[in-house]
Amino acid sequence: MTKKLLPASAFLLVVFTFAAQPAAAQPGEYKAVVHHLRSNYHAKKVNIPFMWLARFAVSVVRPAGVKSFNVTLFQDLQFSRETLDAEMQATMRNSFGPAWSPILRVRSHDGQQAYMYIREAGQNLKIALVTIDNQNAAVIRATFSPDRLAQFINNPEIFGISLNDDRERKAGSENITTDKKEVN
Amino acid sequence: MLFVLAPAMANAQDARLHLDRLNGLETKARDVVEVNIEGKMLDLAKRVLAKMNDQDARKVGQAISGLQAIYVRAYNFENENQYNTTDIDEIRSQLQTPGWEKLANVRSKRNNQKVDVFTMFTGDTMSGVAVVVSDAKSVAVVNVIGPIDIDLLAELSGKLNIPKIDIINDNDKSKTPKE
Questions:
Q1: Which of A91, B3, B44, B118 is within CB 3.0–4.6 Å of B100 for a Cys-Cys bond?
Q2: What is the largest CA-CA distance in chain A?
């Protein structure tokens, strides 16, 4: 019994250590934006099932060079369209320190807004994205390695399984269908 | 080394437009797009492109290797003539300063459309580009800072989503079939 319990508890310990790590290391700016959406626009947080598992999987597999990520989804935002952009710009400016650079801001008349910031973290890059679409919002932060991203683009594979083959196969089958159409 | 690079760097600095003058358009605009690709983001693009197996992608990386920044501002308005034209004229007046050369200039009475393309050169190298487009309901400004290898980009035209550029050399003209 003890023999079985020991590896199981060791596995659980590893899982929770990895799962808790991104939350503990969550930088202030991410929390500040989430807090702003929650408190100023009475946004309701949407629970994403098995998020901890996805974060753990990403920290192990590191697909496309992504080392860690955080996602917080909100719904039922209540705001004034006239002031939202100015308020969000001020919040982003105040929350993200000088190390962060704003690279994208979009405001559209149909209620969509997007704010994207980027910063260097050693050999890695951190990207923060906030999108607001009418009453819904998403706050995303990801850390990734540009070198690993280039490797992934050159040779897209996860756990040794090439994603390229699948694409090539699909492209191949598409070619066959178009050829058939041409024959017809 | 520094003495050689200094004039090029100074010119590249000059190619940066003061786009904050456009902030006045923000309040009236229906849609706003603001893109600032500089330092870290460009380094990332260069790093990724340099490590790509694809030769064309590597050439793009080479062509933009000296690039320092790309800024885009676009504003759409609900109604015609809703914005103050002096705001955009202010940007155009920045392009009248020494260093900038007019490459193209289009004026159309339809929608009051104006298109201006300016370039800045350091020796034989293009060190900056500015495109200002305005009409009755929209304004767009693109400002590229740093050397761009035009020959290399022309070579890549039609590939990797780069628009096809037809450059006909004098030698090629003779080969063009007569209609």
A1: B118
A2: 69
Cross-chain CB nearest to A150 (options B32, B41, B52): B52
User: Domains, chain A, ranges and CATH?
Assistant: 2-144 (3.30.2030)
- The residue count for chain B: 179
pLDDT digits (tens, 9 = 90+) for A17-36: 444 444 433 458 899 999 99
A123-179 pLDDT tens trace: 888 899 999 998 899 999 999 887 777 777 777 676 667 766 555 555 555 555 555
Query: What are the residues of chain B with a beta carbon less than 8 Å away from any beta carbon of chain A?
Result: 29-41, 44, 47-53, 76, 78
Instruction: Look up residue A95 and give its amino acid.
Output: S
| Closest in B31, B35, B51 to A103, CB measured | B35
Q: pTM for the whole thing?
A: 0.72
**Min distance B167 CA to chain A CA atoms (Å):** 31
ipTM over 0.90: no
3-state secondary structure (DSSP) of residue B36: strand
Token pair listed for A127: 């990207």
